[in-house]
Amino acid sequence: MSSNLGEAGGFLRTLPHLDAPDVQVTASPAMFLDEGLTAPYDHAFMLGPTLLRPTSRGKVSLRTTMPGSEPRIVHNYLTTEEDRQTAVRGVQMLLEVAEQPAFKAHRRAPLSVPESESEADVLRFARRVMNSLFHPVGTCAIGGVVDPRLRVLGVDGLRVVDASVMPTLVRGNTNAATIMIGEKAADLIRGHAR
Hints:
Layout: E1 8-12, E2 23-28, E3 46-51, E4 59-61, E5 72-74, H1 81-98, H2 101-104, H3 119-129, H4 175-190
Antiparallel strand pairs: 1-2, 2-3, 4-5
């Protein structure tokens, strides 16, 4: 229990002409299945790609007017051709990494891989296993729900101060950017910033 499971990571350009990486890699020296809901039953290592700038858009809405009701979340993962192609290339690249001697020497059998290397099988696999890696943004984007001072439009005395105010994803984990948003909000509330 001393591991955060994402022991290593990296960034890939799945096409050589891209200006910046489009896939983040998370590597784990332990079996991690079904968002951690399935108990590990053997030794394993895992490699997972995450799209850094997905073009597919989901939606969060209210189910009812009752405050305790869970929101309706529609992820819409891989609904654009660009996202599907990036996911396929990312999975294919990580399958190639897993075939390298340093990994192959420690591998008995594949645990969670596509049925074949065909684009259709890789995409089917990606649809089944990919997720947002706990970095959702944009549900209260600046300009749409809040103003540049993070005040909710049309509601006095309420601000939103978290990753949901980001209009788009940063290329990587959202932690540092979210801390910056919190620090900026503290300055705004104290009247130290414009």
